[in-house]
DUF4249 domain-containing protein
Amino acid sequence: MPAILRLFSLVAFAGVPFALASCIDQISADLPAPPKVLVINSILTPDSLFRVQVSRVTSTVDSSSRLLSTANVYLLAPGRGAELLRNQGRGSYASPNKPVSGVPYTLRAEVDGYPTISATDTVPMAVPIREAWHSYPTGTDRNNELLGTIVVRFDDPGQTANFYEITAHQSQDRGLGQSPRQSQDFALDARGNAAMAAEGDAEFEPASLVFSDKLFNGQPFELRASFSPFSRIGGGIANGQPVGPRVSGEVYVVLRSVSRAYYQYRKSWTRHFYNQGTKGLGGGLTQLLFLGDPTRMYSNVAQGYGVVVSQAQEIKRLPAR
């Protein structure tokens, strides 16, 4: 259908690009209609109810909502009949039940005029953290900023391929009767670990450590990673002097046992996010100059897009050493 496209001219001045309003041109173009394809997204975890979001593929000039509240979403599991999930509005659907580890679940979405889509995943068993602690400071980075160290040990189940995700953060008590406030996650650097090096993710600045047990299947595993406590907690001014980042709250590590689909999705998401050139919340105009070539996102949805993935996690407060 005919559409109006706005073309922006970028002018570089003193090394900084500017978009000038006077350099906006409008042209009429016939854009092909997008395919009639559904999108389904869900993360299954034994700690939460089944929740699903259903949307559709739209064009860049389509101003109507992508979220679909007219779908029939079914949950299927071995030995059980199909359960119709409750419509929560704005493309959200839910079940009053929680997933169980070791059971393969299938989510199927049907909308008039669209091909039916479905995806299946199995929630893994949580792997307990055997031992973990943190130390700070333990060194400095190339900018002479202080670094700490986090150590996590667990026993990998044998005879099967397992996949993991590890994050860490600090929290600060907000006062009597209030739950602790979580800071942004620490950026963990574990490039010295053979399992992490084999993943080839370091150059993409991953937000979390996602890895398989290919190099330690059925064996005890130790992760030793450095971290910098850059977050909303710490820093600022004290007694008229700048205060650098510091560990000022309790430190927690999250060990997630994830499905193969979760692992593959997170790997593709890391590369996609890095490829956008987005740095910081919201990015900026300058990121337009550093966009990479498009990358394909992983999907396990038959005849559609999105992902249905699963994880089971353990959270542990880390004592200081």
Summary: Confidence is low (pLDDT under 50) at residues 5-21, 231-243.
